[in-house]
Write a structure and sequence with these properties.
The chain has 271 residues and is mainly beta. It contains four helices and 17 strands. The chain has two domains: 156 residues, no CATH class; 85 residues, Immunoglobulin-like (Sandwich).
Length: 271
Amino acid sequence: MDFEFIYLQTQPSHMKKRLLFLCTLFLSALSGISQGGGDGCIRLFAVSPEADIITIQNLTSTTLDISDYRLCSLFSYTSGGIGENTTVVVGNASAIPAGQTVTVIWPLNDVAADLAIYVPTGSFGDPNNMVDFMQYGSAGNGRESEADQAGLWTAGEFVPTQEVMVWVGTCDDHSVANWLGTNIAEFDGPAFTVAPNPVQEMMNIQLNGVTPQGTVLSVYDLTGRRVERQALNAGMSGRLEFATGHWLPGYYLVEIAIGNEILHTTRIVKQ
């Protein structure tokens, strides 16, 4: 189920409440909530093909070292292990606490591909060596048949988007229905505009209108971590500037809120 689909099907009087719920779900999911199930597992948790960002979650009860585990996508492999052949941007692949995540950058096809985690050794053609799997954009990609044999996916299924995708469920939930596309739409009118987008060294935010008392502007990264926060004075308008050169590449959410009420949100890409 895609967030944008829900947004478009919601009646106008309920749009704000529904979008607030979906944005809260999105940010909470990316913050590393443990979802349990059985004796625990290692799961692909969030995938951003355009930004080449992959988040993996440890849903066991102990700290895990997955630095030697391998990724596979369209028959391309991290032969030396996640810790050696990817760029780790959040967390530590050698020591992921229980319920937490590690986020890495590794090249992905922007349009359609599969993505799988494999144990450190053994043939990629052996389903017993596959730990988790998903595919997006189309079916029949890469190691789909092995994933089907392993019970980690159903052949012919795919997440019908190339946007940021987040997995929700328990360790035993391997259906495509457990992958949500986070194509979050803007709402409540043009409260602000961001330029340029994608951003590189500097982000300019143009406030369209005056801000109410207690308004806060925040920027969140793909893990749900807030990287910027600025309280806005009542009646404030005009342009704000944020240096973004120190941000890691990837997707970010820019949000204006009063307390727990989100007034406006938009997505940007940092190159």
